[in-house]
Design brief:
Number of domains: 1
Order of helices and strands: EEEEEEEEEEEEEEEEE
Strand order of the largest sheet: 1-4-7-10-13
Strand content: over 45%
Structural class: mainly beta
Shape: globular
Number of strands: 17
Radius of gyration: 14 Å
Distance between the termini: 16 Å
Number of helices: 0
Helix content: under 10%
């Protein structure tokens, strides 16, 4: 709490960021240069009141699942990220819930998978996610927030 970065992982694999409360930081969680099928996981966390909640750069096989991502300026930012999953998270009252840069790699084909997230309100239709290369979608957004216990 009240730091530049809550948790930072650089060039490392098979890390599990589980069951944390990360709050009031410039960055909640940063994963960078984890590019050799690193299998890092961010799960069951409450990450709130940060400028950027989760920032992932030059990484592969990241799993972001069942997190409360709330009251941040930016929920998730991805830069050159491949083969990753963003599923069953609660995005609540973030100014920009999801930013994707270098969109050619983000969400192209089966490369990255975004599905079943709760996007601040009940949704019956797919959730539009903008990135630099055009719109992408969470085709099955959750109708209600997940009960995520830390």
């Amino acid at each position: 709490m009240n730091n530049n970065t809550g948790i930072e992982i650089v060039g490392s694999g098979d890390n599990k960021i589980l069951s944390n409360t990360i709050s009031k930081n410039e960055y909640g969680t940063i994963i960078t240069q984890s590019y050799i099928d690193n299998n890092n996981s961010i799960k069951y966390n409450i990450i709130s009141k940060c400028m950027t909640d989760i920032c992932i750069v030059n990484s592969k096989k990241i799993s972001i699942e069942l997190n409360n991502i709330c009251y941040n300026v930016k929920g998730i930012e991805l830069y050159d990220v491949h083969n990753s999953y963003i599923i069953k998270n609660n995005f609540i009252l973030n100014i920009k819930p999801f930013n994707c840069f270098n969109g050619f790699y983000c969400f192209s084909g089966l490369d990255n998978f975004v599905n079943l997230n709760y996007w601040n309100r009940p949704r019956l239709l797919p959730k539009l996610i903008w990135n630099l290369w055009g719109p992408k979608f969470d085709f099955h957004p959750a109708f209600k927030p997940y009960n995520i216990n830390v």
